[in-house]
Amino acid sequence: MMTRISRRDLMxxxxxxxxxxxxxxxxxxxxxxxxHPAATAGxxxxxxxxxxxxxxxxGTSGLLGILDATKxxxxxxxxxxxxxxxxxxxxxxxxxxxxxxxxxFLNPIFRIPRGETFATTLTNSLGAPTNLHWHGxxxxxxxxGHPSATLPNGNAFRYSFxxxxxxxxYWYHPHPDGLTAQQTYSGLAGLFIVEDDDxxxxxRALDLTLGVTDIPLVIQDKRFASNGRLAxxxxxxxxxxxxxxxxxxxxxxxxxxxxxxxxxxxxxxxNGSNARTYRLAFVRGNDRLPYTLIGTDGGLLARxxxxxxxxxxxxxxxxxxxxxxxxxxxxxxxxxxxxxDPMENEMGMGSGMMGNQGSMGNMxxxxxxxxxxxxxxxxxxxSQVTYDRAVPTQLSTVTPIATTGxxxxxxxxxxxxxxxxxxxxxxxxxxxxxxITVKRGTTEVWNVRNAAASMPHPMHIHGFSFQVLERVNSxxxxxxxxxxxxxxxxxxxxxxxxxxxxxxxxxRIALDFTHPFAGEQRYVFHCHILEHEDNGxxxxxTVA
Length: 544
Ligand code: C2O
Ligand code: CU
Ligand code: CU
Description:
Elements: H1 7-14, H2 18-24, E1 62-63, E2 66-68, E3 73-84, E4 90-100, E5 103-106, E6 109-113, E7 117-124, E8 133-135, E9 156-162, E10 168-173, H3 180-185, E11 190-195, H4 197-206, E12 214-224, E13 230-231, H5 236-241, E14 247-250, E15 253-254, E16 257-261, E17 264-271, E18 278-284, E19 287-289, E20 291-296, E21 299-307, E22 310-312, E23 317-323, E24 332-337, H6 351-354, E25 374-383, E26 408-415, E27 422-424, E28 436-438, E29 443-450, E30 457-461, E31 466-472, H7 476-479, E32 498-501, E33 506-512, E34 521-527, H8 530-534, E35 538-543
Parallel strand pairs: 1-5, 2-6, 3-7, 6-11, 12-17, 16-25, 26-29, 28-35
Antiparallel strand pairs: 3-4, 4-5, 7-9, 8-10, 10-11, 12-13, 12-14, 14-15, 17-23, 18-19, 18-22, 18-24, 20-21, 20-23, 24-25, 26-27, 29-33, 30-32, 30-34, 31-33, 34-35
């Protein structure tokens, strides 16, 4: 049964184009031209024109096209293409381009079963050194895109590895020392989806189809010059605080609209931004809709967990279910980032300089400071269907890493001189220096403590996933979201490769340094605010 609603009204509410509606063929039965005031979706939209974009979803080619990567050597070129991001304007976008038969993929989504071998030959046509890093994947270090292992312009390198990881959504991006931020910002980033039995049975149970009802969301923020080109120029403050855009993009579209049916949807969100953290919530009118977290960086949780908002910092992923069975045709829902205190005022530079507003407009050259509320995406409910699947109570098995009696390592984050540079254990990255050495097969607890005079740092490790054991001294807005006696958040309940550590907070993580590779492995541990990473908030570690 479909609610009678005028085409015009619906388009206004949803902010979708007539063409998009016609293409969906959903409204042909609806006549009438009654006038209703357009419902406001709430939050900030970038420009009236930008709200016309529909969400790019993964298809069989093009941007985010799904490339089945099983036993197939994929030719990939890092290059630039002309791409429309803002309506009517062309940006030069750096992309990974793959041509397979007559299909051209831009930033393809590699999809591969666990246990299969993945191979791609990267040709560098960027005009600068680059490489490829497989974020979250356990890969032999020569294949991992270590910052010192770069590929000169014009050269090619074949990356190949067996997929060890659990089913989940991982991602890939460049990692050349000092150039990671600028290259990733320019567009070089793609998704890597690993499938295993748990993943396939969830998809069957919920009748999910990748690109239709199982939708990856790459959330980024960019700045544009007046001609529509991507702008990236670092002021000293951006170098210190990380580069923030002023226009949120989802799958490279500004505040796009997704049209949906009254059923259950899976969204797999990646924060692919250089520096911005999001606080994800689904909002209808004044209500925050409940949703379900089903997975984190390293795949499915053991059990689904209800939530209403999660923090997602650069590099992190959140796998979510949104149940729209009780929604009505015509409902306008938005995916928002709720306002939060960015806690960038803990710099130890004198609070008088910043005032006590919580709004740190002077800490960034962006018009949109971190923590400001943003509308990321619009969801327009356009048709009624019957859907009777139930979310399984058991999604996967997450075996806790045994930590009784094991060694712990102190990791401290902070500044040397206030306002100068971010440090890990008082050090910055030096290609030839390895401050952390670990024995293979051992388990460690890392107590990652962020100084009080600091800002939030999303800490990421290569080569291994970890488990969050505990959060200590969390700031109030974080402690308020804790779901257990260890102060953990819902997003701490699964396997992680990136975790946000707030000022004054200590996050205790457990790592199992078992790996199957021959010889000593050399990886990095770093902050995923990419300007911090490029400025040395990164250390080598070896697992011998
Ligand atoms: Cu996603 Cu070392 O990075
Ligand atoms: Cu990584
Ligand atoms: Cu940082």
